[in-house]
């Protein structure tokens, strides 16, 4: 500020003239200061003096009242509310977190901190019970006493700062002043100050999720302590408003997220939390949510997962769909409740109240905060059936129905291997029919498993080690490869055409820049469409230049595969079949390629074995064909995936719940029980409705069972000290049931299970009869005592020598089980009831152990 004064006072009394001159100078100076202050204030994005009172982050006191009303009218929300309180209660007896890095990261601790403080703060606000307040305060002081929040990996700081800020704000009035001061100093010293160190603050110039997460955490800190540290807090917010424009650019123009749905959920969750906090504390988000494509990204996420329950998990994305609390914010913001259509189903299935490896449940209270004004019973089925997004990583999704039991789903993508978290997967696709995924993606391999082995994971040059990883290179994705060479990392595959008529729904991608390293091809395109709601067609057109080219067509599948003629492979899983048929003008060599244990296979790039650090891919195989293309030719290949005849050999109205192979079932030392929800489709086929603890087989012709479900429960037990105690569930690699904690992980002496089944949805005119149980590793010296808990005195002791009571049951053409006949126990369960523990079975032999593979029910009217 530059001030120039020129004051000329004339008169006889110098004494008074001097005093007057001083007063005038002072007035002018003050006036200039005020003008400067006004100009400075006008240059700021907000009137920070008008910040809302505590609690100001996300949920005001008025919002809390609305949330309470929401819990009364939305049973799904009440389920989440109850879960949060249960977790909070469990935390009461746990010690506070300690500073413990894993490799270069403190992130696991930061995420646990966010879970603990968000849940405990929520529970205190909802109940007023001071036990939650005191436990949160204890955690706060422990976290603020850490030596640092690990600024060299600034994500750790971002999440930690958000955690302590939410607790500070939500509990503000009831915290001890010493605790508030500890939090303020920690935010200043462990978050704000290191964010100005260049080596830490590179995220400020990035377009990735790092920018959203780190800036969100810092802004939460600034909003929380604004009264005490206004100048530094304002600087943090003003810097974030400029920096945070960068990751928002990645959503444009259509909303598809370049790093895939898993990272959308991570980055966008924190982006939404940043925006929502600015709105709740300062009245607006200063235009952040108006960035092109950002609001539209909710539609991208609506389509990012298929009826199988899996994401289109391209790039570094896990396959399982997880809680997406930010969708409730988008639904409210856009006045489009259909955006949460799938979320409601996931809440009912328990997906939202499950602990997952990504720890996304740490922000679970967002669901209630963002959705508090919605009425979930009014949510309608989405009307949109297709989404296409261009931008950095072009994608196209098709759904033929929002009924997961019968809808088909296609996802296909372009993009470049040079992008963040990318794989060499340009042109890849996934395909679901109903609950089954037939064309799949391996997804990511855990970073720690690679970094701990010294793998140069983040170098994405053409010859980088990243592309030696089995799951990351093009050879092992659902795409094309020429001359056994890597995709061109500088090439970018664009969507050049879309098809939105009912006869054809899908997209065409130009793969030429991706496949070419030395102008081997004149043109290469891939068209993927669902035809007439009936089958998938992949059409590849390849034009060679002046040299012959070897082409590899590949698809990963969780099904078993068999070549049945020169142009057909039959795929089989869960009693269903799919025909992969190739139409070509030139002969092709059909191929089945192994994928379960990568270190046993050679990498075609360099003819070297894959390294030992590559993870297993159990229960998968790759199918496709190889062909040589003459120079100067145009070649067209059409691959169809057509549903085959169901491969269930059980008689009608017989259901078998079989061990999932490879195991996908819940297990653990403290996992004492699990529940599997089994649905019955409109056509009468059984299917899994969540991650399968059991793989169901069977079909019924009893019409009343269509679109109904039942729940099968197992509870591991051990007899010790004269009492029956909880024990841990164990599963073998092929899913068979054991018990943890004994001499082995099978079912040892005095170990066993209580079995329950909830038939509440079944009509009372129907009965489920348990007729068979599958045992393995049960030899002649071992015995299992099986008791019908519904009928006093009905008991059976089955041993490995009871061969006359054992029968082989053919489940599919390629799968059978030996079942013990338990029909003599007369276990007949009527529909309309929940049978908590209708059956018990324990190892009562003198030695040895066994496992359980399956249960058979016969359904009667």
Task: Chart the SSEs and their pairings.
Blueprint: H1 14-43, H2 61-73, H3 75-91, H4 107-127, H5 130-144, H6 155-170, H7 177-192, H8 209-224, H9 230-243, H10 245-249, H11 261-282, H12 297-303, H13 326-333, H14 341-349, H15 365-370, E1 386-389, E2 395-399, E3 408-413, E4 429-433, E5 436-439, H16 447-451, E6 480-482, E7 494-500, E8 504-510, H17 512-515, E9 521-531, E10 535-544, E11 549-557, E12 560-565, E13 568-573, E14 576-584, E15 589-594, E16 602-603, E17 608-609, E18 621-629, E19 634-643, E20 654-658, E21 673-680, E22 686-688, E23 695-697, E24 709-720, E25 723-726, E26 728-731, E27 737-740, E28 751-758, E29 767-776, E30 783-788, E31 795-799, E32 806-812, E33 815-821, E34 828-830, E35 834-843, E36 851-860
Antiparallel strand pairs: 1-2, 2-3, 3-4, 4-5, 6-11, 7-8, 8-9, 9-10, 10-19, 11-18, 12-13, 13-14, 14-19, 15-18, 16-17, 20-23, 20-36, 21-22, 21-24, 24-25, 24-28, 26-27, 28-35, 29-33, 29-34, 29-36, 30-31, 30-35, 32-33
Helix pairs in contact: 2-3, 3-4, 4-5, 4-6, 5-6, 5-7, 6-7, 6-8, 8-9, 8-11
């Amino acid at each position: 500020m530059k001030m120039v004064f020129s004051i000329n006072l004339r008169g006889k009394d110098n004494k008074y003239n001097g005093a007057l001159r001083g007063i005038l100078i002072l007035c002018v100076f003050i006036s200039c200061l005020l003008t400067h202050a006004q100009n400075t204030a006008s240059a700021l994005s907000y009137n920070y003096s008008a910040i809302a009172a505590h609690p100001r982050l996300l949920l005001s006191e008025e919002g809390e009242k609305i949330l309470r009303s929401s819990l009364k009218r939305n049973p799904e929300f009440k389920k989440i509310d109850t879960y949060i309180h249960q977790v909070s209660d469990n935390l009461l007896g746990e010690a506070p977190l300690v500073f413990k890095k894993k490799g270069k990261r403190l992130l696991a601790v930061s995420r646990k901190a966010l879970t603990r403080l968000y849940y405990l703060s929520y529970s205190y606000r909802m109940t007023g019970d001071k036990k939650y307040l005191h436990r949160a305060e204890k955690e706060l002081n422990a976290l603020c006493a850490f030596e640092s929040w690990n600024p060299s990996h600034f994500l750790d700081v971002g999440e930690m700062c958000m955690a302590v800020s939410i607790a500070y704000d939500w509990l503000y009035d009831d915290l001890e002043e010493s605790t508030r001061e500890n939090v303020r100093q920690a935010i200043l010293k462990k978050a704000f100050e290191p964010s100005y160190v260049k080596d830490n603050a590179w995220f400020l110039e990035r377009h990735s999720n790092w920018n959203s997460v780190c800036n969100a955490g810092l802004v939460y800190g600034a909003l929380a302590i604004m009264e005490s540290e206004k100048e530094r807090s304002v600087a943090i917010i003003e810097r974030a408003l400029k920096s945070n424009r960068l990751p928002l650019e990645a959503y444009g123009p259509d909303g598809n997220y370049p790093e895939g749905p898993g990272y959308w959920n991570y980055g966008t969750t924190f982006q939404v939390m940043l925006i929502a906090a600015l709105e709740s504390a300062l009245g607006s988000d200063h235009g952040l949510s108006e960035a092109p494509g950002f609001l539209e990204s909710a539609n991208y996420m609506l389509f990012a997962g298929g009826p199988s329950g899996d994401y289109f998990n391209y790039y570094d994305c896990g396959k399982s769909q997880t809680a997406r609390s930010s969708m409730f914010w988008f639904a409210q913001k856009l006045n489009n409740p259909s955006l949460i259509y799938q979320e409601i189903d996931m809440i009912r299935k328990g997906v939202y109240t499950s602990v997952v490896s990504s720890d996304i449940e740490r922000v679970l209270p967002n669901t209630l905060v963002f959705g508090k004004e919605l009425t979930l019973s009014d949510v309608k089925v989405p009307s949109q059936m297709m989404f296409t997004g261009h931008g950095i990583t072009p994608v196209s999704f098709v759904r033929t129905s929002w009924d997961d039991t019968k809808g088909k789903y296609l996802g296909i993508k372009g993009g470049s291997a040079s992008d963040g978290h990318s794989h060499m997967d340009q042109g890849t696709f996934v395909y679901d029919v109903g609950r089954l995924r037939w064309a799949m993606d391996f997804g990511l391999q855990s970073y720690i498993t690679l970094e701990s082995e010294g793998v140069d994971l983040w170098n994405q040059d053409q010859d980088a080690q990243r592309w030696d990883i089995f799951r990351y290179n093009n050879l092992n994705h659902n795409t094309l490869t020429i001359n056994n060479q890597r995709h061109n990392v500088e090439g970018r595959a664009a969507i050049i055409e879309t098809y939105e008529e009912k006869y054809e729904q899908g997209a065409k991608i130009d793969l030429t820049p991706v496949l070419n390293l030395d102008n081997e091809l004149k043109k290469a395109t891939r068209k993927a469409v669902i035809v007439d709601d009936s089958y998938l067609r992949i059409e590849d057109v390849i034009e060679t230049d002046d040299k012959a080219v070897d082409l590899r067509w590949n698809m990963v599948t969780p099904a078993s595969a068999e070549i049945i003629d020169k142009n057909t492979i039959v795929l089989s899983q869960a009693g269903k079949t799919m025909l992969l048929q190739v139409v070509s003008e030139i002969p092709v060599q059909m191929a089945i390629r192994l994928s379960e244990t990568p270190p046993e296979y050679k990498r075609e790039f360099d003819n070297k074995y894959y390294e030992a650090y590559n993870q297993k891919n159990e229960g998968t195989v790759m199918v496709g064909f190889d062909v040589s293309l003459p120079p100067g030719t145009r070649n067209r290949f059409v691959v169809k995936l057509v549903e085959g005849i169901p491969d269930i050999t059980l008689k009608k109205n017989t259901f078998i719940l079989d061990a999932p192979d490879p195991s996908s079932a819940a297990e653990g030392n403290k996992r004492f029980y699990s529940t599997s929800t089994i649905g019955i489709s409109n056509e009468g086929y059984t299917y899994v409705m969540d991650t399968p603890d059991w793989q169901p087989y069977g079909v019924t012709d009893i019409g009343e069972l269509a679109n109904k479900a039942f729940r099968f429960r197992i509870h591991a037990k051990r007899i010790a000290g004269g009492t029956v105690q909880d024990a841990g569930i164990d599963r073998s690699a092929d899913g068979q049931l054991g018990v943890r904690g004994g001499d082995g992980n099978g079912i040892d002496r005095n170990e066993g299970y209580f079995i329950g089944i909830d038939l509440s949805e079944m009509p009372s005119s129907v009965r489920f009869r348990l007729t068979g149980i599958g045992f393995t590793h049960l030899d002649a010296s071992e015995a299992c005592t099986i008791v019908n808990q519904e009928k006093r005195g009905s008991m059976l002791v089955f041993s490995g020598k009871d061969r006359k009571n054992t029968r082989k049951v053919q489940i599919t053409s390629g799968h059978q089980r030996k079942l013990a006949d338990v029909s003599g126990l007369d276990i007949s369960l009527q529909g309309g009831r929940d049978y908590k523990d209708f059956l018990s079975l324990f190892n009562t032999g003198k030695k040895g152990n066994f496992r359980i593979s399956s249960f058979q029910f016969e359904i009667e009217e």
